[in-house]
Amino acid sequence: MSDQFFPVELPSKCLPYLGIKQGDIQIRSYTGEDEQILAQINPSNLERNFLQVMNRIVKGIDPKNLTLGDRSYLIILEYINSYCEKIKVKSACSHCMNPVEFEVDLRKLHVTTLPDNYHQPTPVVLPVSNKTVNLRLLTVADEIEIEKYQQQVGDAYLYRWARSIDGVDPVAQTMEMKSWPTRDTARVRLFHEEHFHGPDSTINLPCPKCGQEEEVLVPFRLDLFLPVGSALRSCFGA
């Protein structure tokens, strides 16, 4: 039944969440009412509308506090449980150079997890200024604020990284970071690359035409929220 909740083990292992451990967080599959909200999602309201759905389908944590890696994992899991396990990805084989359609089993995507010793905020020394900043992973709440900043101010590139510095005013920090040496801003970005967690965006699959193994990019697209057209037909074997 779609109203039954079940526990999930997240890629973060719940290490960034104070007082929450693996198994405490539960989800359920989408219902028709959830799909009604999902149908209104577009690039400009994605964060707010999907948060509305997450508030309905997630228990054990305020969904705004989920890391982006955990949120990506739940999006894939919800697609598997609510629609189907496979999606089709059109690409060009680098071996035979033919346009082909790969069938990706979402259950077989590799999921990267945080190391058991992860903790946050994590002190990081910037290489040029020698200043120590305390960094944390970005969350759904951060993504919502970044979306607002983008709409109200414009380019949110530095604002994104400023939000991951713990204990600072992100707007003021954004202005300060404009004068940072690029090796210092790059070190902040590296923290997030080093602590990537969630489903990997690539998978190796045999080309359906030549049989050679190809690295296939699994795009993070709107039909992972609500399949339509060919994505919907593939859920029913068409």
How would you sum up this structure, described in words?
The protein has 238 residues and is α+β, with helices and mostly antiparallel strands. The chain has 2 domains: 6-111 and 198-234, no CATH class; 119-194, no CATH class. Helices cover 34% and strands 18% of the residues. The chain has helices at residues 32-38, 46-57, 68-82, 140-152, 157-163, 170-177, 182-194, 229-234; strands spanning 6-7, 26-27, 58-59, 86-92, 99-105, 111-112, 122-125, 132-135, 198-199, 202-206, 213-217. The strands form 5 sheets. It has a 3-stranded antiparallel β-sheet.
Brief digest:
With 238 residues, this protein is α+β, with helices and mostly antiparallel strands. Helix content is 34%, strand content 18%.
